[in-house]
Please model this.
Amino acid sequence: MTGAGVRGRWLRTFRRAERSDLRLVCFPHAGGNANVFQPWAGLLDGATDLLAVCYPGRQDRLLEPCVDQMDVLAERISDVLVPYLDRPIAFFGHSMGASVAYEVTLVLESRYGFTPSVLFVSGHAAPHISRVELDPDLADDEYLLGRIGALGEVDPVLLRSPKLRELIMPSLRGDLRMLYRHLPREPAKVRAPIAAYLGTEDPTCTTSTVRAWGELTTGGFELATFPGDHFYLVPEQEQVVAAVTARLG
Model:
């Protein structure tokens, strides 16, 4: 059993309902951290707890080495979540987080017989038809940050500040390395229903590549679009959380 100290490193609790009927666990994008989901705490339904995964190599885990193997990361997160399986759980993963949430769902279903209420996947093509073509170890910092900046609404201070870049680059490289190594495989279906979201101007995926998530579930599939680019869920967070709440309801 994973101890409370370990769970505290891996999970941030942003909202704890007095009478919780459901836990929503969120998975950040590559190079991102749990705090991107903190504003959701004031927008969710009163009966929903809000937690977000904190990957190694960022925030107060800055000195920990990043995990750059998808199966290892999924198993570690799954172990951390075991004590939380006493009530319904839904997952929301954005970009890289969508793949991580999907892999965690596979582990929980196969190893523990637990199926999430809903698997929300956002801003990411279905993993069995997509792959990161760029080996991050062959690219310099300027190129990688330029690629991230081209995705949409990124804080320009991040791209200009040497200190911030120094903090984020190890985790960004680690995450991109993990995605690069996450080779395509035969589609594995989850039992959890999948709700897929994307921004209409996202340069990383299209409606058709996101719709392919429907091939990875036996539990039902739906697709919704929102105005914006790859990081649409920041300016559109009220609409996104409203859609999540309606689906969970």
Q: What stands out?
A: The longest strand covers residues 22-27. Residues 135 and 149 are 18 Å apart (CA to CA). The chain has eight helices and seven strands. Strands lie at 11-15, 22-27, 48-53, 89-94, 119-122, 194-199, 221-226.
